[in-house]
Specification:
By secondary structure, the protein is mainly alpha-helical. It is built from eight helices and no strands. The chain has helices at 3-11, 16-19, 24-36, 56-65, 67-70, 88-91, 94-103, 120-134. It is rod-shaped, with a radius of gyration of 28 Å. The mean pLDDT is 78.
């Protein structure tokens, strides 16, 4: 674009309402400024990554087994139940989170033991959801990561 076209647009074109009350000198200043701006790229610099799909099975397992103590947002109901959102265990090495779910409470007050009630696939789905929802981009946990998986 050039300054003359921008000036015309401000005086008599589509931008006239936005320039109402401006003097010719102010309109010229606005046109010069707008002309100095860099053009927008024709395409985004990079294509944003597709968000990972939330594990529906894992979410259902979370609702059935965990939501009472850890709340829908992972914040926890009381001091005896650690918050999942922002947790170092949830974001960290998968083995610590797997151990907490399979073996139960630790001195820090982890969760109930689910090693006898969840299959490796179910536990992986549950923890995939927990890490997706509360782990800040932590990698997924796979069924093969569990000792009782097929």
């Amino acid at each position: 674009m050039d300054v003359a076209r921008i000036t015309d647009s401000l005086r008599v074109g589509l931008m006239k309402p936005q320039a109402a009350g401006l003097s010719d000198r102010e309109i010229s200043g606005v046109a010069t400024y707008v002309n100095s701006l860099a053009l927008a790229p024709s395409a985004p610099a990079s294509v944003p990554a597709q968000p990972e799909k939330i594990s529906i099975t894992g979410r259902a397992l979370y609702v059935r087994n965990c939501i009472t103590c850890h709340m829908p947002d992972g914040s926890s109901v009381a001091a005896g139940f650690p918050a999942l959102r922002g947790s170092v265990v949830v974001r960290g090495e998968p083995s610590a989170l797997i151990r907490a779910v399979l073996s139960g409470p630790t001195p820090a007050g982890a969760s109930h033991a689910f090693g006898d009630t969840l299959s490796g696939a179910e536990a992986a789905d549950l923890l995939a959801y927990v890490r997706q929802a509360f782990g800040g981009g932590a990698t997924a946990i796979q069924p093969g990561d569990f000792p009782n998986s097929p």
